Amino acid sequence: MDSPHAIGFYASSAVALGGGLVVVFAGGRGLRALALLISGVGVAGVYASLSAGFAALVVLGSFAASALLLARPDYRTVMGEAAHVWRQLAAVGAAILLGALAYAAFRGDFAQVTFNGGFFGSAALGRLLFARDALSAEAVGALLLAALVGLTVAWRVHDRSR
Questions:
Q1: Residue extents of the structural domains in the chain
Q2: Which of 94, 108, 109, 140 is least surrounded, with the fewest CB atoms within 10 Å of its CB?
């Protein structure tokens, strides 16, 4: 990765991280929605710096739609009550996962992919995902399918209750 791409990658990562922190700690719905949109711009910038323009557009569209949903006046949060012990175990698990990801990031290296797709670069991204991370791509696809089915069922149940 040459210097301009590395600068774009790290600057976009900082924008995404900063937006994510504001989403977590901001008080108002409008400010959180704006921070979510800014975080999406950062994530899209990371994909764009990796020459994955299609993925950047998909991420930008999904973050923008999520920010619009969050900014709606009839948005309600759903708070689940969990025992104190489960919250502590979840925090310890998240810390272990963060440590494992940090170790992998510092010990790993950037994947080398031949670039032959212009700015949009979806073919190179697809080859990278299926060459190195086929199981991860399948897991993300299954998770997305389960989320869409759950959302459809919830919408249909809500629509029948009217």
A1: 1-73
A2: 109
